[in-house]
Structures are given as structure tokens and as C-alpha cells.
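Researcher: Go.
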Amino acid sequence: MDVPILQGGMGIGVSLERLAGAVAAQGGMGTISAAFCGFQEPDFIENFNEANLRALTRQIRRARELAKGAGVIAVNVMVAATQYATSVRTALQAGADAVVCGAGLPKDLPGIAEEVPESQAALAPVVSGGRSAALICKLWDRRYHRTPDFVVLEGPLAGGHLGFSPEEAREAQAGRPKPLLTLLREVLEALGPFREKYGRDIPVFVAGGVKNGAEMRRYMAEGAAGAQFATRFIATEECDASSAYKQRLLDAKPEDITIVQSPVGMPGRALQSPLIRRVESGTQPKITRCNRCLSVCDCKTAPYCISKALISAVNGDWENGLFFCGANAGDVNALSTVKAQMEQIQEEWRTNA
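Model: Structure:
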């Protein structure tokens, strides 16, 4: 990876091969979201599992073609997904350079990777602070005699699923977040014993509310290896989401962003869409069809089907969609390109050196 910029995985269908390949082509880490990535396959409803794995393989290979030998192609896999293990194996078999796992702690990720010995892919957890970083390192050390190859630290201002309580997420939305710098220091301290034991660095990339390259520079001065950006890449020509999805983001104001409860069992940050208002008022219709896509979701009690809501969103259906976004989505107001975004972040980073 030539530049210390990661593009966050965004599902369903927001970051697939076009976005990931374009970011990698500019020297960064482009990330495909494995979350139900086969939703455009003609047999998605009838053959849910097969469609997702088939699409993921094709998307990884196409992203690598678009990257033209530059950067890194990563795959983000949700631990909460029932296809978690098979998605990881498929990503490794298809030649992904890295697998990043969030929406739960990937306690067994190294064991799954050992089933694909030909892969040399980097393995990384998404953590929310020092406690979760220490826990995953202790588990991997004891069970697999290894450490993460890098760590993504997502603070409470991130988009999508959050590793914080609903109260902490709302505090952050109200402008009272636990400083990302504090969390970074906690994570670096937690990783210290494992860096020493294994004689190698464990790079930490900060995410969630990092506005620009200047902020990335400040975190790097405190020990971060770089930063992950996500929401700003939605408003690019190469983003895999529909133009209607992108326009909703461009039209969003800070007051349109809210904290929602996800069927994953975690709070999430999203736009206040009609779906969210129906859920809050108790008028959202009950789930009528379930693919058992999430191990932690009970369709009998879940307030809505998250896969259906995210697919509706990526297709631009404002009435029925769940539009995940970061806390700074209100600052994104112009369509751009990946090249322009990557150059802007790097210019801000170097200018503030």
C-alpha cells in the first residue's frame, strides 16, 4: 500500500469492485463489503448463499483488474453474518490481500484462514477501544500464536454498526464523543505487549469522524499508521451505489443523521429515513420472509429486515431504505471521483506535515 488510506467497507452493495478497485489503483486499500454482495445475482432469493459467494469471487477478481497492480484489495466480513466463515474462506481463495472483520470480534479468524494455506492475506479486526484490542490479541496469541496484521479502530462517530452502547453513540452524535485520540492511545497501549512478544509492529488505522488528511496527520503523529475513510467515498462516480443513494447523502444535513437500533444487535448511524420513522413509531410492517442472513437476528422480534432495508437503500428507495452514514455526512455536498478524493486527502496530509 503506497499511501496510508483505507476505504471502509460499506454494505450492502455500496463498496464493491468498482469503488475498491479505484481506491487501490490510487495506492490505498480498497475494501469490498461481503455483506450479501450477491444481491444483484438473478438467483439471489432462491440461492442466497451460493449467489453471495459467487459474486464475491467475481468482485475480488474484477477489483484486482481495476487496481492494475497497485494498492491493496481487502474484503470486509461481518462476524454477525451466518456466512462469516464461508465468506472469509471465499475471499482468501479468490486472492484478497486482506480480510477485515467487524460487527463482532473475529475470535476464530486465524483458524478459518489456516484452512486456505495458499493465502498470505493480512488479517485484521475492527475494534472500538483498548479492551477489545487486548481481548482479540490475547485470544489469537493463545489459540493461534499470532497477532493481527493490523487493526482498524472505529470510534463512536463512524457510520454503520458501532461497537458502542446506544447511549455512547447518542452522546457522540450530540457532540460529546469519547475522543478518538484517547481510544487510539488505549489501543496502542493494549497492543504494546504483543508487539514486543512477536517483535513486529501492529499498525493501527483510525476511523470514524476523521474529516480529512490534516486530521489523519495529527493521529499519525500520535502513533496511528493512517486512517480509514468511508462516507466521503460514497459521493464519488466510482461508488457502486445508485445515483439516487448518492443524492440522498449529498442532500443530507447534520440534523438528518440519527442513531438506530440494528437487528445485528448493535446501534448504528444512519439517515433519518421514512423506514426509521416507522420503526420508531411502531408502524413498520413485520418481516414476512427471512434468509437467516444474521446469526444474531430473530425475524420474529426484529424491528425490520436489515438486508432488505440496505438493498432498498443502495437502489435509492428512500421510503424503505436504511441509509448508513458517518457523523460528518452533512459535510459531503458534491459529487467527486476517487482520484480527486485520494489526492485531496494526501495534499491535506502533506501540507500539514
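Model: The chain has a mean pLDDT of 91.
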